[in-house]
Amino acid sequence: MNIPVGAFIAVSSVLFFIGVAGVLMRRNAVVILMCVELMLNAANLALVAFSRRGGSADERGSVFVVFIFVIAAAEVAVGLAIVLSSYRNRPTVDVDELHAMKG
Amino acid sequence: MSFDLIETILFALLTIGIVGGAVGVVFLNRITGAALLMAFTFLCNAGMFVLLGAETIAAFQVLIYVGAITVLILYGVMFTPQQERPYGLFFQKQTPWAALFVAPIGIFVALFAFSFRDSENPSTKGGDLVPLATSVFRDFAFPFEVASVLLLAAMIGAIVLVKRDDE
Amino acid sequence: MPLGPFGLDPAIWAVLRLVIAVLLAVGLVFNGALAQIYLERKIQAIIQDRVGPIHTGPWGLLQTLADAVKLLGKEDIRARLTDRWFFLAAPAFVFSPMLASYVVIPFAPGVVGADLNIGLLYLTTLGSMTVLGIVIAGWASNNKYSLIGGLRSAGQLISYEVPQILSLVTVVLVVGSLSLTQIVDSQPGIFINLLVLPLAFVTYFIAGLAETNRNPFDLPEAESELVAGFLTEYSGMRWGLFFVAEYGEVTVVSSIVTTLWFGGWHGPWTDIHPLVGPALGVLWFTLKTYFFVLVFMWIRATLPRFRIDQLMSLCWKFLIPVTLTNLMVTAVLLLAFPDDKLPVAIANWVLLVLFAAAVPYLQRRRLAALRQRLATRRLSLATADRPS
């Protein structure tokens, strides 16, 4: 294989920073959740790249990826539950308007 | 055509898919389009895993992310309809601070990533099904059980959170 | 160099088998859909004591062709406010995973598109991508009934993936590999895995009925419902594409059942000659698969439909505990008696008998509880003060 492991890490970091930018920039709470998923995917890509392509053959990177899958699924479920119950109280998912606990 | 050329072309296509999909998620005004572009990013990520030789992880990626998480997010998008906003009101008030924060760290991480460019390239070793299964069920059996308890707690929590109060 | 199947050089066979796999997949899917539409009408007619199509062609064989021509000629109605790209793309999202499933199914020794060592995992992954297509189809129709039908169908599909995967995992525990070719190779005869794991077969068959939206689980697309669920706004060939996808999915589920429990391509005379043997293997495989497709149609013509809440409680309260128990018992017995399938077989048959006996028992208890509730309610109504 002639693709250096740094290329995968570069793609993973670009994806991660697009996700960070999305979390910081967007107002819709569901889109913020989507950008968090992008960040988790970037972490998965970096982990698998290091575990399968790095110096020594180590499978623990892939195992950690399985745990990240589990946690990401749980987090999306609970996050969406929170967004939906907040939507029930005030019909908005705009995070700029959800500032009742501010100050 | 040797395999090297095909792999490089595939890597380039998948990178364009991942970055294009991610940019679409952040900048697209229509939320359902953003959700589907996110699913496309997940699929390209699974392609990257196959390229690295981790086909079991790729199958899990599609099964969990595209099959379940995308559907959950689509449910969330459908149940929270909002009026279309003009593009100017799109971003939070924190956008300049976001750029100030992300750009320097981004440059640093990019430099770090490209420092791996000239390292050795070992070939991907076999499939990853048996080593992964052995690791998860023998070395990491206890975290695996804890993860299942976490999923159970998340499931119960999500159901309790969306129950209506009058039931 | 050892000769591959059909007596060919392995290098040529590697390229040829991809071509054959694609042709087989496309041919099987479309011709299979045509054959199945005709078979469905004839079998429903025979069971319902009528004749079915007899006018178009000898014994009505050209009826499907007439249907296809009619569907192609229909006007492409598209409501104005639907989301155009999603509306057009949804049938593709439902059809593509089904077509991609055919690449791992072993039709004969060596005749398989790609011998993935995660074959079964690949098939379940593709099954879960269909859910996305149905949600998009329901949403893009801009129609409340379509949306609710699509979300209900997606919920049904996601719920029934769990007993499906658990049944498959039980077979994988006994066989020891996820690769479909190795599962077929590990069965010395036709009925071996069925004799060892009958309960997994029954639960997988029920879950497969629900996964393909077939009767008795076809509430989203039923003909006697007021609207057709997520299919309401689709007309002409787009609807046709959804239905080819459904019949293709039925064939995929039947192929998995054949491969896992009935020996795949095993049958008499499969190794007499390198040219005739694989062809006979394909023939046995097709016959067994179509036997199960006919069972699907037989069930459709006979059983009444489940309501959505009955369907969900069947999955979560009945099938998932049964499959989990099956999995635990099989795993424990395989650890206790390694390389011995007999305790697993005995335990499975015992569980199957319990499963078959539990259904009338639970129904009787529910009926008694319902009668009790009605009696107390009638009593309270009779003794209440009512201005009547």
Describe the structure.
Chain A has 103 residues and is an all-alpha fold. Chain A has one domain: Helix Hairpins (Orthogonal Bundle), CATH 1.10.287. Chain A has 3 helices and no strands. Chain A has helices at 5-25, 29-53, 60-89. The model of chain A has no long low-confidence stretch (mean pLDDT 86). Chain B is an all-alpha fold and 167 residues long. Chain B has 2 domains: 1-82 and 89-115, NADH-ubiquinone/plastoquinone oxidoreductase chain 6, subunit NuoJ (Four Helix Bundle (Hemerythrin (Met), subunit A)); 125-167. Chain B has 6 helices and no strands. The model of chain B has no long low-confidence stretch (mean pLDDT 83). Chain C has one domain. By secondary structure, chain C is mainly alpha-helical. Chain C is built from 12 helices and no strands. The N and C termini of chain C lie far apart (94 Å). Chain C has helices at 10-47, 63-73, 84-100, 119-140, 144-175, 180-185, 192-196, 198-211, 237-261, 276-302, 308-336, 342-382.
Q: Which architecture of chain A per CATH?
A: Orthogonal Bundle
| Largest interface between protein chains, with number of residues from each side | A-B, 74 and 92 residues
Number of separate strands of chain A: 0
Biggest pleated-sheet summary of chain C: none
**Distance linking N and C termini of chain A:** 56 Å
Structural category of chain C is mainly alpha
What name does CATH use for the topology of chain A?
A: Helix Hairpins
Q: How many domains is the backbone of chain C divided into?
A: 1
The helix-and-strand class of chain A reads mainly alpha
Number of helices, where a helix is a run of at least 4 consecutive DSSP H or I residues of chain C: 12
Shape of chain C: globular
Overall pLDDT of chain C: 82
Give the CA-based shape of chain A.
Answer: elongated
Number of helices of chain A: 3
User: β content of chain A, as a range?
Assistant: under 5%
Number of domains of chain A: 1
Q: What proportion strand of chain C? A: under 5%
Query: Percent range for helical residues of chain C?
Result: 55-70%
List low-confidence stretches of chain A: none
The total strand number of chain C stands at: 0
N-to-C order of helices and strands of chain C: HHHHHHHHHHHH
